[in-house]
Amino acid sequence: MGFDYLLFFIIPNLAGGLYILLAALGLSSGRVRHSARPVDNYLVVVVTVGNERVLPALRETVAQLERLGLRYVVVSSRPLPLGNVLVVPREADGTKYRAIKWFVENYARADMWYIFLDDDSYPLDSGFLRDIAYYGGRGYVAGNGIIVPRPGRSALAYALDWVRYFHDLTLYRFALEVLRRPIFGMHGELLIVRGDVLKEVWPAMGDTVAEDFRFAMELAKRGYKTFQTATPVSIKSPNSLADFVRQRARWAAAVAEAFRYRNPYYLVLILVVPAVLWLGALGGSSYGYLGTPQAVAAMYLAVYTYGSIKARRYIIDVFVASLLELVGLAVGIVRKAASFYIIDKR
């Protein structure tokens, strides 16, 4: 057995096989609607910077929450012409982490459940209240929804965002539903947390621009159980490819957090697996065989094809634009984000 055979065939196929196995286990775990009575001790918390770039999306979010009859409060860096608004004092503001910390320290109660949303995200139904009752009665303390993108002004960014939906149905579901541990992180959109755990963990985390990932790492470190609700959460795709890249660049902060928490699972998934799959793809073209790296590539090609159909784009330009996701992550790793870039949500 030559070294090139090991490098280009054995290792990539093992990595590709593991990736497919985890995705299949997540997808096959399914999600069911639980018949438990909805909890009443809850509050939806929408966190926003409150400037003119986010107001249109924020109004859309508030309107949806009111249509669903959900109790909510808006935690904002600025006063807003809306009801149910808490304005974060300037000395307590600066990042999303700090704004939520201020809310937790001043308003959160141990006997409540809190559902956090970004200003451009909203649940498509209220079924998560039943899931909270079901899982909460079994000792689970935190959960996440299933991200479903909706169009912004960039059709390409919208097409690319369907990868997030695929990841939620596979890898994130595997972590949250099969392992019951958020080893790959959690989304800030429809982040469900029991009040006593929120009060225990959030103020102790320390400031970060990857607060949702750090929170997930703290939950995993402390052995708390998590779940994935069947409720889809609609998120608005970036209005431009430039904002798309900036958004992904900030997400690269999760890589630094994974090193901080010595999380080998996330690091292998985000750094090692893509590298060996690329080696496998190169090996396949050189040696004329098909293997699990090619199967993974076909899987993502199917996702990008689906996104292109939803966005009414040609699959070729969507597939080429998919490289921007890698560019954004690379930029974020090289240039560590120290603050949020507020993308245009008008």
TrEMBL record:
InterPro entries: B_mannosylTrfase_Bre-3/Egh, Glyco_trans_2-like, Nucleotide-diphossugar_trans. Keywords: Membrane, Transmembrane, Transmembrane helix. The chain crosses the membrane at residues 6-27, 265-281, 287-307, 314-334. Residues 115-304 form the Glycosyltransferase 2-like domain. GO terms for molecular function: beta-1,4-mannosyltransferase activity. It comes from the Archaea. GO terms for cellular component: cytoplasm. This is Glycosyltransferase, probably involved in cell wall biogenesis.
